[in-house]
Write a structure and sequence with these properties.
This protein has 5 helices and 7 strands. By secondary structure, the chain is of the alpha+beta class. It has a 3-stranded antiparallel sheet with strand order 3-4-5.
Amino acid sequence: MARTHRRTERGTQVPPRASRRLTSTTRSFTVGEGKGYLTVACTEDGRPAAVTIFMAKQGSTLAGLMDGFSTTITQGLRHEVPLEVFVREYVSMRFEPAGMTNDPEIKHASSVLDYVGRRLALDFLPYETRVQFGVLTADERAAKELQDNVGDAAWADMIGMAMSAPVVTSPRQG
């Protein structure tokens, strides 16, 4: 069910209002020395509608930046910016805190935004899209490496066989 924009008195378009009831999940995470909570509220059809990141003490610089970041993503989603746009921008972004995470699917993050982008990609984007961004679970990465290595080995074997095969010529017909 597609929801269309509505017009205000001045004729400007406003995106549709989000449902009054959203289902959300909250995940605690660590990135290096940073600890926080990621809450994602989803629409009835399972798409992310709001993202909230809580980190550090209220009033701290990091907490303020994460509030602003959360608002930006939420407003973007509300204005129908595809999640892929956010993931593309935030994955591989580097700044502190960075390092090992407590998430078994994301072993290392180069920043909190890198972690959030990767987590959103894993939770909401299809495999084919995530491959383009290099965002795979540990199991998917291992399977892809195995597939890629087998593919390379098979290609090398075919080249080797072609090089060692005898040259066959057709007999002349007289």
